Amino acid sequence: MAIVLHSPGMDRQSIQPAPEYTSSAPAPPYSADPQPSERRLNISPRSSQRYLTRGNVIVEHKHATVVFQNQGSDRKTPSFGANSLIDGVVSAHGERDSITRVDFKLQGSIQVTNAVNGLRKQTISQVHTLFQHTEGEICPSEIPFAIPFPTKYTDVDKEHNLPPSFCSGLDAMTSLSAKCHYTVLITIYRHSWHFLPKTKSIRIPVRYYPRSRPPRPPLFSRLLPSVKVQPDEWMQISSTIQTRDGSGLQPLQCHFFIPSVQIFTLSRAIPFHIQVSGPCSSIRELFGSASKFQEPIVSVKLMRQVIVDLMGEKSWRNIEHAHGDVRALPPPMTCGNEGEGCGCDTVFLDWEGEVRSADEVSVGGFNSGALIVRDFLQLEIAPAHQKSSKILPSLKRQVIKLVTDPFEDDQPEGQDAWMI
């Protein structure tokens, strides 16, 4: 392309075109994925990158059509993340010259109940005027809007993060329920023959799903091959499995290992390792007698706790979201002697497995003041014959945090995902 420079004081005959320039060569392709002969040591994805979203959500109503742009191609309900824009257009139906004003209202609330009380708390109430009639002006056929979705709200002079869309139905045992929901209200005002404004409103439910990611990549290794070379990658939670009074048996020691990051992606499996150790006689009691030999109950569950705080009175319910896959590791327990007087040294039993969040869980834990949602892993170990066994059942819980996005920057759609 020729570039011509011109100045009023220059002789037009002396002006010469600049030489031709060609575009620079494109940058070579780069990839964050290692080659077969390479190994990734670490990666820091750009948390500020915005992923492109394609598709619109169209809401048809007898009074207007509302189009929400930049939505996922498979979405039926408009969804937004933290720091995102609610953008689109409103097309009013009917005679546009009678329209005097069009308002856009974003509403949000938290509703919680327990056995004796209930509370509805407003988190958002923002009104934006999209069109205001002036003399000689007619409402356009398409009215654009671009409204930022807030990320904070204030409750009793204390600022909280805006909670995600969430619903926990009424529990028959605790009478506890909780709901966080958001709506967009489009209101169209018109002149009428009786000089009273005619108002038509369209209420549209929307979802708020703030995204987040863990601070470092997930651990894909099993415990035994990696604990010596990566000891900091594992967290050990220890407990004691008690015996009944007067049983004459010594307690067992239990060690529950999970990745030390304690922050996990909803769509990824959480690895774990369990080790139980103790005298052979106590281990044998855990499995039952030789005539009634049976595997003990070893389970790992992913639980969610919903806590409602009404006027300082807290009530809660625990919900099981997933049951882990637990596998016993060789070698099997061996003991050459019979009875409780076994003189074997300490015996070690190991299990490993994974647990993954249920597909219907779409948000991680949060704290919005009146409503707190948190997640934890629950390890339960019980003897094969609980009623007659001299070993008591054991229950151990460890709080974790669930986030929406993986550490890797590989998601094709969505808004920014922030490091935890």
Under the CATH scheme, the architecture of the largest domain is Sandwich
- SS strand fraction: 35-45%
Quaternary class: single chain
Task: Determine the mean pLDDT.
Answer: 82
One letter per element, helices H and strands E, the order comes to EEEEEEEEEEEEEHEEEEHEEEEEEEE
Radius of gyration: 31 Å
Quote the CATH topology of the largest domain.
Immunoglobulin-like
Between the first and last Cα atoms, what is the distance in angstroms?
49 Å
Shape assignment: elongated
Low-confidence stretches: 1-16, 45-52, 335-341, 411-416
Major sheet, described briefly? 6 strands, mixed
Could you say how many structural domains there are in total?
2
The helix/strand class is: mainly beta
Q: Count of helices?
A: 2
Helicity range = under 10%
Text of the CATH class of the largest domain: Mainly Beta
Count of beta strands: 25
Walk me through what this model shows.
- The chain is mostly beta strands and 420 residues long.
- The protein folds into two domains: 57-209, Sandwich (Immunoglobulin-like); 213-419, Sandwich (Immunoglobulin-like), CATH 2.60.40.640.
- It contains two helices and 25 strands.
- The chain has helices spanning 223-226, 280-287; strands at 57-60, 64-68, 79-80, 85-92, 99-113, 118-132, 143-148, 152-155, 158-161, 166-168, 177-190, 198-208, 211-213, 234-241, 252-259, 263-265, 270-278, 297-310, 313-323, 325-328, 347-355, 366-367, 371-382, 394-403, 417-419.
- The strands form six sheets. Strands 3, 5, 6, 10, 11 and 12 form a six-stranded mixed beta sheet that branches.
- The longest helix is centred in the last third of the chain and has 8 residues, at 280-287.
- It is elongated.
- It starts with 56 loop residues before the first strand and ends with a strand.
